[in-house]
Amino acid sequence: xxxxxxxxxxxxxxxxxxxxxxxxxxxxxxxxxxxxxxxxxxxxxxxxxxxxxxxxxxxxxxxxxxxxxxxxxxxxxxxxxxxxxxxxxxxxxxxxxxxxxxxxxxxxxxxxxxxxxxxxxxxxxxxxxxxxxxxxxxxxxxxxxxxxxxxxxxxxxxxxxxxxxxxxxxxxxxxxxxxxx
Length: 181
Known about the structure:
The protein has ten helices and two strands. With 181 residues, the protein is mainly alpha-helical. The chain starts with 6 loop residues before the first helix and ends in a 6-residue tail after the last helix.
């Protein structure tokens, strides 16, 4: 089977259908048959959107350079296979797949997120008071959400919030926020 009628034709057809830029398509094909086909299979299985495929290609390339591995080997990892074949809708699994790739690409960021999530859990906040970390930790902003049904509940949650102020400040410092006033 020649390259024109083989894997590159299949990759090219999918890329055209999904409006993948030519430069990204050429990088995808240049990965070689094994890696390109492995990515194509995932793209088809999860019905990846254009942006998701472009992100996956970029992250797989970066992980591969760092670890000296091809995309097919990376995609065969159990943590990625679990997100691809896990429960949930295709869009949910596609999102979980991209999130897991991001964790592999940025392992220190993933460890930081885990540590911050543990710090939020350690706050042991009551129902109605929630601390929400930024989705991808690209911001140092934390959202504190109060959900109340009565003035008494509001008062109680504000007292708890005031009591946890030092811990929340420590969380903000760990996230990278600083006092500029």
